[in-house]
Amino acid sequence: MSDAAQAMDRMYRRQRHLYDASRKFYLLGRDRAIAELAVPPGGAVLEIGCGTGRNLVRIARTYPEAACHGIDVSSAMLETAAGSVSRAGLEPRIRLARGDATNFDPEALFGRGRFDRIVISYALSMIPPWERVLAEAAGHLAPGGELHVVDFGGQAGLPWPVCALLNRWLAAFSVTPRATLPQAVARVASAAGGRAQVRQRFRGYCVHAVIAR
């Protein structure tokens, strides 16, 4: 097991049971990003850093013709995700696998190498080599595919005391907002021969970025 996997398992061994109930108050923009995925009929979706499976369940319900897949480096989170998928009755449509977001082989994990939509929701802010994750994800897009990223933003429109309090609190959970996410998205999109779109939401509290191939 990698150091990253061990760290995530330690962090979420207990937190995972309360994760969805607590995070819904501050992981803003996730549902709007899901609503804007516009998965093509019969399309394949991959969530990188799928955590408890909360987003995958919502995606599967929103796009009933989509084949959904999720990877996470934490076996503890995957255990919780499997339970969420089972309770939702979506086991035939959602496949889960353990994988490192910086380097994974979806062909080996799922028998599929490309995806019409890839989602990364509030995971880059927890992964130190986060730019590698962006490049890795973009490399698994099918022609015409889109990578959707929602995560903490640079907070430019928020009052300084609010930013200071928020960042101090996030640091307690090993979360670091990626202030240069828009620039990184543009670089990855250019390298992949695609185009980038970045929208700041809630006065910069979060960013919804899209790389379209």
Which CATH first-tier class would you pick?
A: Alpha Beta
Give unreliable regions as ranges.
16-22
| Average predicted confidence as pLDDT | 89
Structural class, by secondary structure, is alpha/beta
Largest sheet descriptor: 7 strands, mixed
Tally the helices.
9
Radius of gyration: 16 Å
Could you describe the 3D structure shown?
- There is one protein chain.
- This protein has 213 residues and is α/β, with parallel strands linked by helices.
- Residues 16-22 have low confidence and may be disordered.
- The termini are far apart.
- Helix 4 links the parallel strand 1 and strand 2 (67-72).
- The chain has a seven-stranded mixed beta sheet, with helices on both faces.
- Helix 7 (130-138) packs parallel to helix 9 (181-191).
- 39% of the residues lie in helices and 23% in strands.
- The chain has a single domain (3-212), classed as Vaccinia Virus protein VP39 (Rossmann fold, 3-Layer(aba) Sandwich).
Summarize the structure in short.
This protein is α/β, with parallel strands linked by helices.
What topology emerges from the helices and strands here?
Layout: H1 3-15, H2 19-23, H3 30-35, E1 44-48, H4 54-62, E2 67-72, H5 75-87, E3 94-98, H6 106-110, E4 115-121, H7 130-138, E5 141-152, H8 160-171, H9 181-191, E6 195-201, E7 206-212
Parallel strand pairs: 1-2, 1-4, 2-3, 4-5
Antiparallel strand pairs: 5-7, 6-7
Helix pairs in contact: 7-9
